[in-house]
Write a structure and sequence with these properties.
By secondary structure, this protein is of the alpha+beta class. It has six helices and nine strands. It has a single domain, classed as Alpha-Beta Complex (Maf protein).
């Protein structure tokens, strides 16, 4: 893909970087420094969208001529947001909650170019069903170290792929960025074009 504007990914997530690289986009990574803990918990859709918007605005202030892509991903079960586990016990609790059940992965994303006064944000939801996990599977997975720094204590694109029985919706959304929707918007705004 050809870009007529230097893109910025306002995230330190290696998964989002990987997804955009695989999609053929050229961009610079400049993570937002906002303190996510200062954003009050609210309705999951509103919360995850607000986080993405704040991150995009933070970087767009510094680079007003450039298009900024920001995102945030959460796991929700029974209207409860599961963040990143802060201990083995926390990861164990989350994985037990998700076992043999369907949960939602929500990614809020925002695209912003300040000089063009163009701002777009949305939330994409994917339904994910886990297999029934036994205690030894949970303990083994926790000790791989993968559940930490992951919303809901798992990574669908990593070892955690064995936990997932089915998904309904966007796979890349579960990884951390709804690539189809992001690129559709960038093409519509002539920010990127499919080249020969």
């Amino acid at each position: 893909m050809n870009s007529n504007s230097a893109l910025i990914l306002a995230s330190r997530s290696p998964r989002r970087k990987y997804l955009l690289e695989k999609a053929g986009l050229s961009f610079e990574v400049i993570p937002s420094g906002i303190d996510e803990t200062k954003v009050p918990l609210s309705d999951p859709d509103k919360y995850v969208r607000q986080l993405a918007e704040i991150k995009a605005q933070d970087i767009a202030k510094q680079y007003p001529r450039r298009w900024v892509i920001a995102a945030d991903t959460i796991v929700v079960i029974n209207d409860m947001i599961l963040g990143k586990p802060d201990s083995e016990e926390d990861a164990r609790t989350m994985l037990n909650q998700l076992s043999n059940r369907t949960h939602q992965v929500l990614t809020g994303y925002a695209l912003f170019c300040r000089d063009e006064n163009c701002f777009h944000s949305n939330v994409i939801t994917t339904q994910v069903r886990f297999k029934k996990l036994n205690a030894s599977e949970i303990e083994w997975y926790i000790h791989t170290g993968e559940p930490f720094d992951k919303a809901g204590a798992y990574a669908i694109q990593g070892i955690g792929t064995f936990l997932v029985k089915s998904i309904k919706g966007s796979y890349t959304n579960v990884v951390g960025l709804p690539v189809c929707e992001v690129i559709e918007f960038l093409i519509k705004k002539n920010v990127v074009a499919i080249g020969k």
